[in-house]
UniProtKB/TrEMBL annotation:
CDD domains (UniProt xref): PAP2_containing_2_like
Protein name, UniProt field: Polyisoprenoid diphosphate/phosphate phosphohydrolase PLPP6
Record's bilayer topology term: Multi-pass membrane protein
Pfam families documented for this protein: PAP2
Top class in the EC scheme: hydrolase
Any one cellular-component term (Gene Ontology): endoplasmic reticulum membrane
Gene: PPAPDC2
Segments forming domain Phosphatidic acid phosphatase type 2/haloperoxidase: 53-165
Similarity comment: family membership: Belongs to the PA-phosphatase related phosphoesterase family.
Highest taxon above the source species: Eukaryota
MF terms in GO: sphingosine-1-phosphate phosphatase activity
Catalytic reaction annotation: 1,2-dihexadecanoyl-sn-glycero-3-phosphate + H2O = 1,2-dihexadecanoyl-sn-glycerol + phosphate; (2E)-geranyl phosphate + H2O = (2E)-geraniol + phosphate; (2E,6E)-farnesyl diphosphate + H2O = (2E,6E)-farnesyl phosphate + phosphate + H(+); (2E,6E,10E)-geranylgeranyl diphosphate + H2O = (2E,6E,10E)-geranylgeranyl phosphate + phosphate + H(+)
Length: 184
């Protein structure tokens, strides 16, 4: 009921249908492909060991996220809300399922990663958290997900960062990976 009530941008004729293009832009900001490509590009351009270490772990985090979300979606197979329009930016086979929200997991994971590994002024830290929250909300407003899909997605993304932090890759514990990137 709440998910349907909040799906105010699900169609052009919805009450907030005019906001749909903005919500779809937010959708792209949380999509896995731009994050993966951007991270790979930055990794290829990085000339410091510290930068490579952070980017290598961001890449590990993003790949872990894609794997876990695809696995859970494939196991749970919860259909997207009936009011969803399947006009998403680049979809894969498991994207017909809604639980959990991959955008929400990625938003929580990336936000926590950024807040822990970049030195940012307080206003920028607030913007990072706000981006994650609004991205999650936009998934429900577009009718892509139920509220529980997004809530679990935030929890999963938050937890995934703990896994990445525990398994942190460095030149000391994964020298082969760092040698591969330093050769390019």
């Amino acid at each position: 009921w709440l998910s349907k009530k909040l799906g105010v941008c699900a169609g052009e004729s919805s009450s907030w249908g005019s906001m749909r293009p903005l919500m779809k832009l937010l959708e792209i900001s949380g999509h896995g492909i731009p994050w993966l490509l951007g991270t790979l590009y930055c990794l290829s351009r990085s000339d410091s060991w510290a930068g490579r270490e952070v980017l290598m772990n961001l890449l590990f985090a993003l790949l872990l996220d894609l794997l876990l979300v695809a696995l859970i979606k494939g196991l749970v197979r919860r259909r997207r809300p009936a009011h969803n329009q399947m006009d998403m930016f680049v979809t894969l086979s498991v994207d017909k399922y809604s639980f959990p929200s991959g955008h929400a997991t990625r938003a929580a994971l990336v936000s926590r990663f950024i807040l822990n590994h970049l030195v940012l002024a307080i206003p920028l830290r607030v913007l990072v958290v706000l981006w994650a929250f609004i991205l999650g909300l936009s998934r429900v407003m577009l009718g892509r997900h139920n509220v529980t899909d997004v809530a679990f997605g935030f929890f999963l993304g938050y937890t995934q960062y703990s896994i990445v932090d525990y398994c942190w890759l460095s030149p000391h514990n994964a020298p082969v990976l760092f040698l591969l990137w330093s050769q390019q």
